[in-house]
Amino acid sequence: MLRTLQTYKLLFLRLIFIVIGIELSLYFFRIGLLFTGIFGLCMVFLLAREMYFYVRNLVLVYNKTISSILQDDFSSDFSKHKFNSTYNDLFTLYETMKSKQNEQVTRDIIYRSILNNIESGVIILQKQEADWSIFLMNDYFSSHFNVSKVSKWKYLKNQLPALCEIIEEDDFHEIKTSIEISIDEQSKQTFVLQASRTEIFGQDYFIVLLDSIQNVVEKKEKDAWINLMKVISHELLNSITPIRSICQNLEDLVEQDSLSTEDLEDIKHSVQTMLRRSDHLQKFVEGYRKLAMLPSPKKEKADLQQLIENGIQIMSPLFKKNNIEVSNTVAQNYWINVDSQQTEQVLINLLTNSIYAVENNALKQILISAEAKNNRIFIRITDNGKGIEKEIEDKIFLPFFTTRTEGAGIGLTLSKNIIEAHGGYISHKNENGKTTFEICLIED
Description:
alpha+beta, five-stranded mixed sheet, 12 strands, 53% helix, five-stranded antiparallel sheet, 21% strand
């Protein structure tokens, strides 16, 4: 404990002075100087007393500091001892531990604040011997399920038996399922339940997340409506603003007493511009109607290879015009239960996208392939075009979103709706400088 050289020196000096004092006192007694000997013994007593308190204070400071560190209590003030170099290492350790605890407390406050402000129920359990205790329950969980912040698993089980029974049935292992929970004795609500188990520094923790499916759906619908309204308002303003400006100009012209040849030309160009913008609005509205009124697919057995050949034949003039090399590797006969016209439209939409993607390439290639796996048919259309930028990957299937000035932005959205109406899905990926759109259909 007493590690510094200075401490040893001070104690050694005190012991030397005490030994010298005792020797002198005994010497004075031997030569008959009684009072001088008594005075010497008094001095020895004072020196011994001073050394006792010096060692005692030293030990007390060490004990108090070490005790504070062990108990995570950093409220003590040792500023009056900081000038004593004996405690340098000890106080450095104390300040380091205090700083780390402050950082940890700050993190805990931030994490708890985050957990308490998210709209998901979060509860963390901690294993203690054979039982579980509530390590953390966020405010949303407590308020939404009307559960008080209890500390024991058995108390939570009394209040939310439906949730606790599912967790116990899986023996506190990883869970991902849906669950119906009755809140305030009202109609049941459906939640997505996700649970995982982890071990940290020998402690066993079980983390439970509950998300209301209704909230998730409402949020998705709200986001979709916001994106849709942005696109619609953008398109409407792009057409209405110039039309209004042209109408004002025409109004000024017709109020003149006579019209010159130049005025007539202006009127002619203005009417043509309004017609173009009106045609654009009409196409935009027709595209929206096509998305909103997509008929249910009339499924029938169809040869996939024939469907692809039909799509390639329809697009062949554009392939020849743009010098695009198209490879169809679908050799095996795959029979799929689909609406042939709608599926053909999807293939045409994806091939059209590929044509625009490779337009700036010297070597333009499109590859069509298919694969049957796990009772599913995967149809892939790959091109060596510029690919899809990271920033817009999550937007390409949004209605009316397009990166082309002349595009309507409904091709991919319509294709996605058609494939989903068939019970499948459509996805995309960028790999090795190539873009692939993949259609997945269930094989009947």
